[in-house]
Design goal:
Helix content: under 10%
Distance between the termini: 73 Å
Structural class: mainly beta
Strand content: over 45%
Shape: elongated
Number of domains: 1
Largest sheet: 7 strands, mixed
Order of helices and strands: EEEEEEEEEE
Amino acid sequence: MIRLGLRENKTAFRPCEPIAGAVLWEFEKVPEFAEVRLIWFTRGKGTEDGAIFGTVKLDAPPAADTREFSFQAPNGPYSFSGTLIALIWAVEFVAKPGSEFQRIEITISPDAREIALPRIPQPKRQGLPLRGN
């Protein structure tokens, strides 16, 4: 069992604001590795991309525990959503071995709201006369 939470259930942040919370876990076996990550990833058409911005390694994790964590919201890239792609930030807890993990999606931007990219209208195609040889 994993319970990941952010302080005051806040999920929208401005650059340089603290992103703080706690994670509680209860596993049958002691994990070899556990950490909380601040990540970003893209979602949409085309190749997906992503990166780990920061990590809080949870040293000597027992089978059950609660740990606090904090990050500083970065100066970019900002959370956005467009017609073809979106950039999403998230805080996630990962424990190994196994596939134990939980994620909370968050927003990071200057006004703490996802930036909605405007749809760009496609130019109207005008037919060109075909020429024969």
